[in-house]
Here is the input.
Amino acid sequence: MASLELKNVGKAYGRKRVLEDVSLTFTPGLTLLVGPSGAGKSTLLRLIATAERPNRGTIAWNGRNGARGALRKTLGYAPQAVDLPEDLTAREFALHIAALKGLNQTQADKQFGAITDAIGLHADINNRIASFSGGMRRRLIFAQALLGAPQVLALDEPTAELDGETARKLGALIVERAKDAIVVMTTHLADELAPHAVQVLRVEGGRVSPSQTARQPEPVE
Here is the structure.
């Protein structure tokens, strides 16, 4: 079974300490991060996604310290904000990301089509990203993270800017993926998704602590 372990991880920007002595173990299932704005939730996700390195401590993938390259090969990351290539269509962008993940075009088209169909974006995949609304961009960022069936998904507010029905569609897809993958995410739908989570962690004051007792995930109807 896949495992991701943070051991005494700390992160600071200059003199500002954002995370201190964080030790966590993630296995397949949904983990929700909650806490006040600016508490370090996004920083923790960036560390998990290897977008940044900790100032101290280690991150082990399947028991191996320093396995950054191996983790990246099976990682999906959807940050809150990203500069998308405005001149590309959604499909062209997805094919580029898929190629970086080692997928061929046939695999990429099949996966991207299924994901975008599930989240109501499929009709727009051949339109240029420049024409996309904020919610459409959010769905595209989410869709590219799922390409390649990653074993680790780090999702930062993937349901932001979405209407209730679309947000619930994303939530259902996330819960489904969490049956086989490690999914760590922040979301304004934390209360709705908590019954499906194996753990809910509170990030505050540079520390991470259990916010809720782990439970068996409930099925999504």
User: Anything to note?
Assistant: The longest strand covers residues 16-26. Residues 143 and 198 are 23 Å apart (CA to CA). Residues 4-212 form a domain with the Rossmann fold fold (CATH 3.40.50.300).
